[in-house]
Amino acid sequence: MQYETGQAIFRVKDVKLGRQTSVVHVTLNQGTPGDEREEVVGYITQSNLRTERGVSYDTDWQSHPEPPPVDVSKLDSDTDEHWGERKVIPFQDFRKAALRARSWYPKAGQIKPSIVDQWVCLKDQGDAWTNESLGFVVDNFPQIIENFHDGGDMYSVKFEKEHGHMEDFIARKGAAKMWYPTLLLNLDIKKALPEQGVRFLYVRLQAKQIKNGRYDLEIVVKDPTGDLVALSHHMSDHIRDSSVTPAQASINDYRYPCAAAPDIIRSNQKDAYFQSVLLTQLSAVIRSLYGARTAHNWTNETRTFTELLYLGLTTFVGNRTLGEEYCDIVQVEDDTGRLPELTRRAGYILSSVLVPYVLGRFLPALRRRLRAKLEVSMRKSHRRRASSPSRSKLPPSRIYQFQEYVSKHLDTITSPAPVYALSLAVFYFSGAYYQISKRIFGLRYIFTRKLEPSEQRAGYEVLGILLVLQMIVQGYLHLHETYTHAATINLPSNNAAAAGTSAAIDNGVEVAADTTIAAPLLFEAPQGADPVAQQEQISKITHTPLPQPHRHDLKDHEAMQWIDGKQQRKCTLCLEPLKDPSVTTCGHVFCWQCVADWLREQPMCPLCRQSALVQHVLPLQG
User: Fold this and answer.
1) I need a labelling partner for 56 at 20 to 30 A (CA). Which of 43, 278, 308, 427 fits?
2) Where does the record place the RING-type domain (predicted)?
3) What is the architecture of the domain spanning 72-252?
4) Which element (helix H / strand E) includes 398?
5) Interatomic CA distance for residues 20 and 460, integer angstroms
């Protein structure tokens, strides 16, 4: 059936005229004269219900499952306990007839997605439902398929309060409007309503099967007393808007592929570059206004403000970042595949920028407090142990050893680095959620173009394996050293064996001075750790030879003769001849070990204070 907007002609023919029942044939025709088409065909059987007489039996039929109870007198004021009025019916601008009626739905939601219960009345107070208006009742029904298409109870009162007009909600979500051509198979009127009509009618709509774009509808109409008023059956097809062609529909149904790990990392690096440019310019402004000391003291705050400014001008307002545009990727919600809502975007920005800043500000103070409490507890335990000659010969208690362990590894225990490393390893394997904040808020990237079958999407699974191996090795070294240290303490001759491996703090409390436990393969090195001692310890455990101490030592005048001048061949950090000369991004040269140790403590050039990272330092050759 192809309906057209315009004139239509109804033709009614008598099929059977009887004393009790009459049947008429009705057609709806459209088209130009001489080329008319029958668009709708139907038979109407008419009888006078008020004069009908016949046998009646109580079949004890009831709606199952039963709808919530109702106090019809409270519907008008919308104060019923179980039913609430929807002020706006979905798609009422398209279905103009819906504007003439009021509808109430269960406040707790529909019993099942395939069932919709409602109470209806006409908006005009003087109007009431009669037998003649039952056709309007059974034809102006909620669309069950919307519950399955969009998920949830689309006609619930709660949904309207949370999301406003459904049409606006669907437009925001990006879903296409659905069009429902229906074929009324029958309308069987079971009861004659009073001539003056009734104010309210109960309607239950139920679908038994939805398959291949077709679904059946059964509509039951009851009056406020619970008597069955009418039964109706419809056959429906659900398709998209008639203006959407099959080719357009295939485009709408297309799912963009998820972005690959290399594109996500490249986008992140591009964003980091633009953020660094913005940071450099902002630092220059602060330096010119307030001086270099202020600019240095507020480096972390400036960096945080720069990141907030960059993401606020892009992600927060719904735009793509420069890195995302460069890599042709778009950020979407993982569960719906739609553009992220404002709350998700704001949550991602705050968690990815402010949370690390807050942790960086408060973690050191927290560590100092915890370490002070541990030292006090260890001091008391040591005093009790020293006061008794019998206890002093015994190994330290388990609690003391645990406190000593926590005090020694407090920086690593309270560091978020292990969580970051684990999240990064998962990203290398899955290609999703490069940042923990994106994993928390369910934000993924998709390509904005269709990938050809010949295109290869490389992954970083090998890096994931290497990172996992790195964590396993570090864990093994840590467990090995911890076990060895504990076994040494518990030996009867621990006082002699532990010589040179402990030191006294206030009031004679001894703590281990061996800082080489758990070589920092993945996390930051403990402050004060000797890199040479760490390398020797790892070599001892793994049975691997140590590399040469220095490949290039400028103490030898034959090495790197192109570096002229006695001062130029000295490191400004150790004031000795350069060993393995290495250059930072700003162009200053230091010993490799000196600059690496410096950058672990503070990521900036020792001379010009420009931002620098260990991975950006280049060793000189030749």
Assistant:
1) 43
2) 571-609
3) Roll (3.10)
4) helix 398-408
5) 81
CA–CA separation, 61 vs 228, rounded Å?
A: 10
Tokens of 23: 């049947």
Q: What is the pLDDT of residues 544-574, one digit of tens each?
A: 666 666 777 887 877 887 887 778 888 988 8
User: What pLDDT, in 10s, does the model give residues 347-396?
Assistant: 999 999 999 999 888 888 898 899 888 888 888 887 887 777 777 677 77
The dihedral through the CA atoms of 22, 27, 28, 34 has a sign that is negative
Residue 197's Cα: distance from chain center in Å? 53
Where do runs of H (alpha helix) occur along 350-397?
Answer: 355-387, 389-392
The distance of Cα 357 from the centroid of its chain, to the nearest Å, equals: 22
Residue 41 three-state SS: strand
Fold match flag (72-252 vs 548-622): no
CATH number of 548-622, picked from 3.30.40.10, 3.40.309.10, 3.40.50.1980, 3.60.130.10: 3.30.40.10
This prediction's pTM: 0.49
At position 597, the amino acid (one-letter code) is: D
CA-CA-CA-CA torsion sign (324, 327, 330, 335): negative
* CA–CA distance, 535 with 114 (Å, rounded to integer): 68
Cis peptide before 106 (omega within 30 of 0): no
List the domain boundaries for the chain.
9-47, 72-252, 548-622
Region 261-271: mean pLDDT is 92
| 440 contact partners, CB below 8 Å, separation of at least 6 | 347, 348, 351
Question: Both tokens of residue 328?
Answer: 């042709």
Is a pLDDT exceeding 70 seen at residue 173? no
| String of DSSP letters for 253-282 | T--PPBPPHHHHHHHHHHHHHHHHHHHHHH
